[in-house]
Amino acid sequence: MNHGDILDFAIDEATNQLVHIGQVRKGLQCNCRCPTCGRRLIARTGVRYRHHFSHLPDELRLEPCSGGPETGLHLAAKQIIARWRYVDLPPLIVTEKAKNQFGVECEATLSIPAERMHVVEAILPDETPWTDDWIPDVVLRAANREVRIEVKVTNGVSGSKQAKVQRDGFPHWSTTYPL
Predict the structure, then answer these.
(1) Is 4 helix (H, G, I), strand (E, B) or coil?
(2) Contact, 153 vs 146, CB < 8 A?
(3) Which of 30, 126, 129, 147 could form a disulfide with 43 if both were Cys (CB 3.0 to 4.6 A apart)?
(4) CB-hemisphere CA count at 13 Å for 88?
(5) Domain chopping of the chain, boundaries
(6) How far apart are CA 140 and CA 125, in angstroms?
(7) Residue 149, Cβ neighbours under 10 Å: how many?
(8) 1-33 in b/e burial notation, b at 16+ Cβ within 10 A?
(9) Own/partner long-range contacts of 42-50 (Cβ < 8 Å, ≥24 apart)
(10) What are the beta bridge partners of residue 109?
(11) What is the pLDDT along the chain (179 residues), one digit of tens a residue?
């Protein structure tokens, strides 16, 4: 068994939705495709190995797919977050230092208290039209606030994307949530 080809999630061909290995029929009857390369998958649900999807061996010999496991987990995390009805935002304290017009060092602190934000709308920008020049993984909206979420499976937010987030004035929290 190629451990790099063990996928827990796949795209259902009929619904075009992400499905877990526990939700499908075994073998090719699963009618699933890889979230990364789009090729057909087989659902392996026997007793010898843990249940998983894998690419058809002949297709992998022609051209390997390396992103399937991470992409599937990334998609699953985004869909789970999009179903949240609330999110607990931690406090944010920002301190800026500058010199005033007289050359005196000044300090200003902005504090946003912790808050339970009740989600009224969740958006997956990859699946809907998005006009900003940077695309978050998930957007959660409340009546008076919007939180843009980046999901890190392996790779974090790129430097260019982080610069755009800071440019647009979005507060930044780094929080780990178990899925």
Answers:
(1) helix
(2) no
(3) 30
(4) 4
(5) 3-72, 84-167
(6) 11
(7) 19
(8) eeeebbbbbbbeeeeeebbebeebeeeeebbbb
(9) 43/10, 45/21, 49/1, 50/6
(10) 95
(11) 454 577 888 889 999 888 999 999 999 999 999 888 888 999 998 888 789 888 887 776 667 776 666 677 788 888 889 999 999 988 888 888 888 889 999 998 988 889 899 999 999 887 778 888 888 889 999 998 888 888 877 667 778 878 888 888 776 666 655 54
Task: Say whether pTM exceeds 0.85.
Answer: no
Locate 50 and state its tokens. 């843990």
* Type of residue at 26: K
CA 133, 137, 139, 145 dihedral sign is negative
Any idea what the Cα angle at residue 77 is, between residues 14 and 23, rounded to 5°?
Answer: 40
> Are 7 and 52 within 8 A, CB to CB?
yes
> Largest Cα–Cα distance in the chain?
76
Can you give the length of the chain in residues?
A: 179
DSSP character string of 14-78 = TT--EEEGGGS-SEEEEEEE-TTT--EEEEE--SSS--EEEE-HHHHHHS---SHHHHHHHHHHH
